[in-house]
Design brief:
There is one protein chain. The chain contains eleven helices and five strands. By secondary structure, it is α+β, with helices and mostly antiparallel strands.
């Protein structure tokens, strides 16, 4: 006859299962998860969330921050309004909304948020999950020409597009494109391209088992040495150290 567990063991199971669920969410590719307190301060996020915002110092890099620290004001205010609805008892279910990325390109995501409640039913905060929508669109920048270039760089960074190619995508002269990058991003187009190469390689370092030399080639670096040098300049660590840190989940 099976032994019936008591209330104490059930409580332990719930606590342990919470940790197990957090570990599982770290393994889900492309799905961002988070928990915020009633003040909108992040208390926990999963690996996909960190990769989306390129917060690569540690898993604790986002704890203590708010949406205003991570996203443009117009996007942050949308997130905060949704949180207030959830805290007031309304649900947010599969909402289509814009979510920002480290490369300044916002994408359409499907987002669900629920309240986190204590033992007596009091609301302690919110928890959410978001994933990229199939009907995604590149929006989120008042300069549509620059927005097209940012999207083009993200999708073609391994091909090393020249400033002339990028200017044609934007529909303006090379000099006008360089001025737009300097004003909005404080970088030249080629500096931004190198940054995106490194940032996009982070995904493969975490979720793929390819050798570092293969990751380097897939993201437009001449060889592994070139990759390591540029990666260290951007993140302060080597690709190997980054992979070890994020694959271990520590």
């Amino acid at each position: 006859m099976a032994k019936v567990s008591g209330a104490g063991s059930g409580s332990l199971l719930l606590r342990r299962s919470g940790e197990a669920m957090r570990q599982l969410f770290d393994l889900v590719e492309g799905v961002q998860c988070w928990v915020k307190d009633v003040g909108g301060v992040y208390q926990w996020v999963n690996r996909a969330f960190l990769l989306n915002y390129s917060l690569d110092a540690s898993w604790n890099a986002v704890v203590g921050k708010t949406d205003y620290d991570l996203s443009p004001k117009h996007l942050a205010e949308q997130f905060v309004l949704d949180d207030q609805r959830v805290l007031a008892g309304e649900g947010v279910r599969d909402r289509l909304e814009l979510v920002g990325r480290f490369d300044h390109v916002a994408t359409w995501n499907r987002t669900t948020k629920v309240p986190v409640k204590g033992a007596r039913g009091e609301v302690l905060g919110t928890a959410g999950i978001t994933r990229r929508a199939e009907e995604n669109a590149i929006v989120g920048h008042v300069d549509l020409g620059l927005a097209r270039v940012l999207a083009y760089i993200r999708d073609n960074h391994a091909d090393a597009p020249s400033n002339e190619v990028l200017a044609a995508v934007a529909g303006r002269s090379v000099r006008a494109l360089e001025r737009a990058f300097a004003k909005e991003l404080h970088l030249s187009p080629q500096q931004f391209l190198r940054r995106i190469r490194v940032r996009c390689s982070c995904h493969d370092l975490v979720f793929c088992q390819w050798p570092l030399s293969e990751v380097a080639l897939r993201h437009g670096f001449c060889d592994q040495s070139h990759f390591t040098r540029e990666f260290r300049l951007e993140t302060g660590m080597t690709p190997r150290a980054y992979r070890k840190l994020y694959q271990s989940g520590k």
